[in-house]
Design brief:
By secondary structure, the chain is mainly alpha-helical. Helices cover 71% and strands 3% of the residues. The termini are far apart.
Length: 293
């Protein structure tokens, strides 16, 4: 297969993205401020997490359908990153106040914008849709290496400076039952790299006319179940693996591969490359796991 013909930039896709990003900011702001009866707090916090995830995924898939590439994607990345940095700084300067919550909520919309820009920018360098297969097999292992092993950068950052990840990740705020000083510490985080790769895959699927709709319909409940495990059973462990931080590229890669593999029509050599990518990823995880604390 060769590169797909260039797509005309769709204003409809961008407008839809901005609308959902605005809805996400409003939802984050209200969830941070609302007070509920104590018996409802946990259940509504979980529901808020699922809603934030659904809004984020839908926005990224819709934005990726616009055909962003090159300069337009780069401009979106810079605008989103600059806006997020300014708003996060403003929220800290404002302390515990309603304005701080508003700044942080708007910063979440800017985060989504930056992730869309970066994901679509990188997707523009992908010339063959069949590269999806080795990417989908290697990236979950690479994410597991980063998040779960002692040599993983993400794991080290979470242990040494958790506030760094908190400043650049998508927040799931607690729906609190008592008096609160806003903004609250999040009860869960969705890593920015996960959002970037969702945008990357969505852009590739739209660009090569693959199964973007089916992928989103399977990806949303899969990641929602993943998030529920983190929120509900985050204090538990399975062997050395703590459930409070799980590599989200595992379900992302699996869903993207399974919902599109029939349309890729890989050659024998490309299947071999895909298997090699999986073996390399598995070896990376084994290497990272071989080191002690």
């Amino acid at each position: 297969m060769t590169d797909a013909p260039p797509r005309v930039l769709s204003a409809r896709g961008l407008r839809g993205f901005l609308l959902l990003a605005g809805a996400l900011a409003l939802f984050q702001f209200l969830a941070d401020l609302v007070r509920v009866p104590p018996a409802w707090s946990g259940m509504l916090s979980v529901a808020a997490g699922v809603a934030i995830l659904a809004l984020s995924l839908s926005a990224l898939f819709l934005g990726a359908s616009s055909g962003l590439r090159g300069r337009s994607a780069f401009a979106l990345l810079i605008a989103g990153a600059a806006g997020m940095a300014l708003l996060v700084w403003s929220s800290k300067a404002l302390g515990s106040s309603v304005l701080a919550s508003l700044a942080l909520a708007l910063g979440q919309a800017c985060l989504l914008t930056a992730c869309l820009g970066l994901g679509t920018l990188v997707a523009g360098a992908i010339k063959e849709p069949n590269l999806l297969a080795p990417m989908c097999l290697f990236l979950p292992f690479f994410d597991a290496f980063l998040v779960l092993t002692q040599k993983g950068l993400t794991k080290r950052v979470m242990e040494a400076a958790p506030q760094v990840l908190e400043n650049v990740a998508m927040r799931v705020p607690e729906v609190s039952s008592g008096p609160k000083e806003a903004p609250l510490a999040p009860v869960a985080l969705i890593g920015p790299a996960d959002l970037v790769f969702v945008a990357l895959f969505a852009a590739i699927l739209h660009r090569f006319n693959l199964n973007s709709r089916g992928t989103l319909l399977w990806l949303a409940p899969s990641l929602a179940a993943y998030l529920l495990v983190v929120m509900v059973a985050g204090d538990a462990k399975i062997g050395p693996v703590s459930l409070n931080a799980l590599p989200a590229l595992v379900p992302i890669g699996i869903v993207v591969l399974l919902t599109n593999v029939r349309r890729l029509r890989l050659t024998r050599e490309e299947w071999a490359l895909t298997a090699l990518a999986g073996l390399l990823g598995l070896g990376l995880v084994a290497l990272g796991s071989s080191f002690g604390s």
